[in-house]
TrEMBL record:
PANTHER family: METHYLTRANSFERASE (PTHR43591). This is Methyltransferase domain-containing protein. Pfam families: Methyltransf_25. It comes from Curvularia kusanoi. It comes from the Eukaryota. Signal peptide: none annotated. Gene3D superfamilies: Vaccinia Virus protein VP39 (3.40.50.150). Residues 70-139 form the Methyltransferase domain. CDD domains: AdoMet_MTases. Transmembrane segments: none annotated.
Length: 315
């Protein structure tokens, strides 16, 4: 069963009956689970795959040594399918809050499970049992296994007019210290752009225990959890087109412009509804600011970062 939320502005209308369905769960997740969202996730997955040079996984895994892999928050199963294809002899489990839609043929080594991974008491999620955990839950990885997370931050950056080369902004490896201290050469080529909608969304998500700026903090958490051989790669996720972009960056730019007014109001309204009526005025102010944000996107060279972080659990 799913909850529904009326779409009360034209910016958030996505279905013929003007409603979006959501996971019927107490989990801190504010995006829908309907067919419209499935289509968005499929497109997003394909575009990120192309942006990352036609690959998903970055962990240096030996295919012959992977017998069990887990995709947490598998959505439409796009990454689960990729993992099962790369490791045909492995048992691959995809877990999500809602049933996985049948958008592709399910490979024989895939098992899908519905539920909050934090609450599932299942022998298939034993500690120290997975060679690869994609997303989170470090405790499930076995000694020598790899944990890989792909996370973006909602912080928006602008490339000033005096920056003529995008060299440092292209996909690059980055150290933990550089990420934590914003000291990579690419950080000198961009400026942070604050927005009201972002501040309010962050406030609402914090009530759920969610940090939308978690990406640069993950490597330090990996270290604290005892992971070793930590690798970080950072990709620019353009919000709008500008001169000098690659074909893959242009595709991402078109996607973000097309979906910004579509999904962001939905997420904001759901977060505001969950927070309670005392946050309704702030929620409405954030929704109005999204329209200003959309205008800014069309006028400058703006982007967010998406980080890939890999770490190995010690033997």
């Amino acid at each position: 069963m799913s909850t529904v939320l009326p779409a009360t502005s034209t910016a958030s209308r996505s279905t013929k009956d003007d409603v979006r369905t959501f996971h019927d769960t107490g989990a801190a997740y504010v995006l829908p689970n309907d067919n419209v969202e499935h289509q968005r996730l499929e497109l997003q997955s394909r575009l990120i795959y192309e942006l990352m040079d036609n690959k998903v996984l970055h962990s240096p895994l030996d295919q012959s040594h992977v017998s069990k892999a887990l995709d947490i928050g598998c959505g439409t199963g796009a990454v689960t399918h990729e993992m099962a294809s790369l490791f045909p002899n492995a048992q691959v489990i995809g877990a999500d809050l809602s049933p996985v839609p049948e958008v592709r043929q399910k490979l024989p080594n895939i098992t899908y499970m519905q539920g909050n991974i934090l609450d599932v008491g299942d022998s298939r999620f034993e500690q120290n049992s997975f060679d690869l955990v994609f997303s989170r839950l470090l405790v499930l990885a076995k000694p020598g296994g790899w944990v890989e997370m792909h996370e973006l931050s909602t912080e928006v950056y602008n490339i000033p007019d005096n920056v003529t080369s995008l060299e440092y902004l292209r996909p690059h490896a980055i150290t933990i210290d550089q990420l934590a201290n914003s000291s990579h050469p690419s950080d000198a080529s961009s400026n942070r752009l604050p927005f009201l909608w972002e501040a309010i969304l962050n406030k609402l998500l914090a009530l759920k225990g969610v940090d939308p700026h978690c990406a640069p903090k993950i490597p330090t958490l990996f270290e604290a959890a005892g992971l070793r051989d930590i690798h970080i790669k950072r990709y620019m996720f353009p919000w709008g087109r500008w001169e000098g972009q690659t074909r893959e960056e242009q595709a991402i730019a078109d996607y973000t412009v097309a979906t910004t007014l579509e999904i962001m109001p939905v997420a904001l309204r759901k977060a505001g509804e969950d927070a309670g009526p005392e946050y309704s005025e702030e929620t409405e102010a954030a929704l109005k600011d999204i329209e200003r944000f959309q205008q800014v996107l069309s006028e400058g060279r703006n982007f967010i970062w998406i980080c890939v972080i890999c770490g190995r659990k010690p033997e």
